Inverse folding.
DNA sequence: CGCCAGGTGGGAT
DNA sequence: ATCCCACATGGC
């Protein structure tokens, strides 16, 4: 199995820094002129708007292409709903209409309100929040599972945690030649960050997840992987 | 058309 | 614990 460090370096050479999380709206996007990706910017969100937008996006993108989520975030922003109280003030029907394009819109409307209520009650939405939600707290909320919890922790709060998604599992399974449990994936990738400063860990984990997604989309597709143009095929047992 | 997308909760086994 | 399914839109 390829060393995590090597994999990270290869991904970086192949795709360059991705600059996740993508920010869709202008408001709260301090220090940047443009919307979208901000390569080499791994700062913790500097406004409540941006932090909340990231958390909302983490829920809206559950099993959903990001392009379907973009429009929702723009619609929510236009409605002034990237704000905990304003979002909670919307009727369910209105909120559902605003996020329709992300799919599962009835479930997701409920999830967004659950998240907003949780942030509001605990003051986590404030940038000056004294504390960060724990993983357990996030997981206890209806609609937030492991990937969403870890995405929120990493990209909205800057907590150095690994985000494991379907791309990560598929790529590592093909590299190894067999499925890995999430526990095994965490153990395997831990050497890429251990012993490093938190700031450094945050940068690596930001990029690693983004790079798995990029490689998964462009090379390691589920049905028909493009192994001919894959930069890590020399290390790979797949596809299978 | 059918398949897939940066999952999750709930119920059955 | 582990499978199985519902949830839903939009792009290729």
């Amino acid at each position: 199995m390829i060393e995590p460090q090597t994999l990270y370096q290869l991904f970086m050479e192949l795709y360059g820094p991705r600059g996740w999380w993508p920010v869709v709206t202008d408001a709260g996007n301090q220090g940047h002129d443009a919307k979208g990706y901000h390569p080499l910017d791994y700062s913790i969100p500097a406004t409540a708007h941006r932090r909340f937008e990231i958390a909302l996006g983490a829920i809206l993108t559950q099993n959903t292409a990001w392009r379907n989520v973009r429009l929702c975030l723009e619609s929510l922003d236009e409605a002034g709903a990237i704000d905990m109280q304003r979002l909670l003030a919307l009727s369910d029907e209105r909120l559902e209409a605003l996020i329709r394009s992300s799919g599962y819109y009835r479930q997701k409307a409920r999830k967004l309100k659950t998240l907003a209520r949780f942030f509001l009650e605990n003051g986590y939405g404030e940038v000056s929040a004294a504390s960060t939600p724990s993983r357990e707290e996030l997981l206890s909320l209806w609609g937030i599972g492991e990937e969403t919890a870890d995405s929120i922790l990493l990209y909205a709060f800057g907590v150095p945690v690994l985000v494991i998604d379907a791309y990560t599992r598929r790529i590592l399974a093909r590299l190894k030649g067999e499925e890995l449990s999430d526990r095994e994936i965490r153990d395997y990738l831990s050497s890429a960050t251990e012993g490093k400063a938190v700031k450094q860990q945050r940068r690596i984990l930001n990029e690693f997840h983004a790079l798995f997604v990029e490689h998964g989309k462009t090379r390691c597709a589920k049905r028909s992987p493009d192994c001919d143009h894959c930069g890590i095929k020399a290390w790979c047992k797949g596809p299978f």
In short: The mean pLDDT of chain A is 94. The longest helix of chain A spans residues 198-218.
